[in-house]
Amino acid sequence: MKRAPLITVTILLSMLLGYLLPASANADERVKPIADPIAYTADEIRDLGLDISKQLRCPKSVNQNLLDSQAPIASELKAQIFLMLNQGHSEEDIITFMVERYGEKIRYMPSLSSGTSLLWLAPLLLVLLAILSVFFFIRPKMVNRADQVEISQIDGTKS
């Protein structure tokens, strides 16, 4: 009778250890040590950490950067940023790490690549299309009206 609770506790503990051990093993692999760490001052770490947090989007919150978000994942990512800065990683290393982990969507300003080229070129194409439409469709109508006004002023008639 007393063996059933003991077996249950043993199973639960083994499941808990099985869950926690791989996570701690992966935690060491997440951030790779670097050969030449950068020595930052405390003020530089604070400023760089805040700047990087402003550049990265919170994966949980809609339209918020890591600095503004109150989501738990944002707090974890900010802690990761400051940890990496304390270890001597550069801003580029940290952003690359976050992009590898969460994808390009974590950036507020995605880099120009084949996947994001439409995102970068669409506003330029829309402005060009607007200028061309004004030139080819609206301008001829305005020129015709101006010609009609000149002719009516010469003839003395109203159009």
From TrEMBL:
The residues that cross the membrane are: 118-138
Q: Where is the CcmH/CycL/Ccl2/NrfF N-terminal domain?
A: 49-152
Query: Signal peptide span per the entry?
Result: 1-27
Q: Which residues form a coiled coil?
A: none
Give the InterPro entries listed for this entry. C-type_cytochrome_biogenesis, CcmH/CycL/Ccl2/NrfF_N, CcmH/CycL/NrfF/Ccl2_sf
Q: Which UniProt keywords apply?
A: Cytochrome c-type biogenesis, Heme, Iron, Membrane, Metal-binding, Signal, Transmembrane, Transmembrane helix
Q: Which domain of life is it from?
A: Bacteria
CDD domains noted in UniProt = CcmH_N (cd16378)
Which Pfam families does the entry link to? CcmH (PF03918)
This chain's function reads: Possible subunit of a heme lyase.
What family is it from?
A: Belongs to the CcmH/CycL/Ccl2/NrfF family.
Q: What name does this protein carry?
A: Cytochrome c-type biogenesis protein
Protein source organism? Shewanella eurypsychrophilus
High-level lineage: Bacteria, Pseudomonadati, Pseudomonadota, Gammaproteobacteria, Alteromonadales
